[in-house]
Design brief:
Number of domains: 3
Number of helices: 18
Organism: Timspurckia oligopyrenoides
Strand order of the largest sheet: 1-3-4-5-2-6
Largest sheet: 6 strands, mixed
CATH architecture of the largest domain: 3-Layer(aba) Sandwich
Number of strands: 8
Family: Belongs to the AAA ATPase family.
CATH topology of the largest domain: Rossmann fold
Main location: mitochondrion
Keywords: ATP-binding, Membrane, Mitochondrion, Mitochondrion outer membrane, Nucleotide-binding, Transmembrane, Transmembrane helix
CATH superfamily of the largest domain: P-loop containing nucleotide triphosphate hydrolases
Subcellular location: Mitochondrion outer membrane
Length: 450
């Protein structure tokens, strides 16, 4: 039994030799592996060093480019701001009012339009005589002569807000510009892109800057076009930014934050004769929308006066057409105004302008085009005889009734194209469904006969 477990000495010596050789081989393998790891580590470290060096070089170049761009942008923006401030001072704003403008006020300066930069007047707007008369009494006269409304009673003061509403293309924005032109007020146009900002608190700061800038440059009309886009009725699902922006705007509008006495302290050095409370008389929030029912009720309440700018009737369409065609050559006794006005029922002022543009192109095409291409005579005049070309331009015939009749097929009222297309598609869908039903019934009858 013992001999089975006792190893022979020769075998014991041979096993010891094998184990020593195995240990040597294992040591060599470990040394080679360690050397390989060291070479890989050194290679990776060298790559990392090269990467860091390249990144540092690129970062330095980027910083230099950014600093040069920032310096260029700052210089250009500062020059544009200084130009805007100089223009405001030249228009009558006291320099003291434009001192120490905040960065947000400077950001809104490009949105200010001076009366001298507006070419639209009430005379350039056809029809809407009733609306223009009311605007003149309620807004223009108080802005131009605030002392007439400086009674101790607040009932004699004009409203702080007015709304222009009606279908698209009826001239609401033109009325707003003409209102600023006629009253001599600066025009501060506000849009979603000028107020909304992705950074926390910036939107409210821009809203506050809009009101403070309007008070600085008064008389001022703070105009919000497409007002339903910014001041839609509030719901529980509104984003926090929109909710806070509306609340800030409404509070500033009411004067809870920027009140009479706060702005009056800024005005004392600018105008010694300004009476208390007159500052806010010359700042008006004017909105325009074609969806007034979607406005927030709080906004509607602050719009003390609302003016409907509706589609024109026959007489108003003629007035609009005559205003648009002023200075355009018309053949004597060649326009049947009654026919044209009857044929354009449902057209807005914008539609009538496009109709006149299409009608004016017809005589030009007859004079210079053949089959949609410039004729040979016109090409020759363009290349050789500029004086004869000017004479040919003056020889274009005047407008005729037939030009408007032909253009009616090209220019239709706004929305008419979409409505017509929707009706066509619905008719196609219904006819296709009915044809499918008829085919199904025929197939069913054929199967029954079989």
């Amino acid at each position: 039994f013992r001999s089975a477990f006792v190893m022979d000495p020769s075998e014991q010596y041979s096993s010891v030799g094998m184990s020593s050789s195995n240990n040597k081989a294992l040591k060599l393998l470990l040394v080679e592996l360690f050397g390989g790891f060291l070479s890989i580590a050194s290679f990776l470290l060298s790559l990392k060093f090269l990467k860091n060096s390249f990144q540092s070089v690129l970062r330095d170049e980027t910083d230099d480019a950014a600093s040069s761009n920032n310096s260029t942008f700052n210089s250009s923006s500062s020059s544009s701001h200084s130009t805007s401030i100089q223009s405001l001072v030249a228009s009558g704003v006291h320099p003291h009012n434009l001192s120490q403008l905040s960065p947000h006020e400077l950001q809104l300066l490009p949105n200010v339009i001076l009366p001298s930069q507006i070419s639209t007047t009430f005379d350039s707007i056809g029809a809407l005589d009733d609306v223009k008369s009311q605007l003149h009494q309620l807004i223009i006269t108080p802005i131009q002569h605030p002392h007439l409304y400086s009674s101790s009673s607040s009932l004699t003061r004009p409203p702080r807000g007015a709304l222009l509403y009606g279908p698209p293309g009826t001239g609401k924005t033109m009325l707003a510009k003409a209102l600023a032109k006629e009253s001599g007020a600066r025009f501060l146009s506000i849009s979603p892109s000028s107020l909304l900002n992705k950074y926390l608190g910036e939107t409210n700061a821009l809203v506050r800057a809009a009101f403070s800038l309007a008070y600085r440059i008064q008389p001022c009309i703070l105009f919000v076009d497409e007002m339903d886009a910014l001041f839609r009725a509030r719901t529980s699902g509104d984003h926090e930014v929109f909710r806070d922006m509306k609340a800030e705007f409404l509070q500033l509008w009411d004067g809870l934050i920027t009140g009479d006495e706060q702005f009056q302290s800024q005005q004392n050095n600018a105008d010694e004769e300004e009476e208390e409370g007159l500052a806010l008389l010359r700042v008006l929030v004017l909105g325009a929308t074609n969806r007034p029912w979607e406005l927030d009720p709080a906004v509607q309440r602050r719009m003390a006066r609302a003016f409907k700018v509706d589609l024109p009737d026959n007489n108003q369409r003629r007035s609009i057409l005559e205003t648009i065609l002023k200075g355009i050559p018309v053949e004597p006794t060649a326009l049947d105004w009654e026919l044209i006005c009857e044929s354009t029922q449902g057209y807005s002022g914008s539609d009538l302008k496009e109709l006149c543009r299409a009608a004016c192109l017809i005589p030009v095409r007859e004079q210079f085009f053949v089959d949609g291409q410039l004729n040979a005579r016109t090409n020759r005049l363009l290349l050789e005889h500029e004086e004869e070309l000017n004479g040919a331009l003056h020889s274009v015939r005047g407008l005729r009734t037939s030009d408007f009749v032909s253009s009616l097929n090209e220019v239709r009222p706004a929305g008419a194209v979409g409505d017509a297309y929707r009706r066509e598609e619905s008719m196609k869908a219904s006819s296709g469904a009915s044809n499918q039903t008829f085919e199904d019934s025929l197939r069913h009858m054929f199967q029954q006969n079989q």
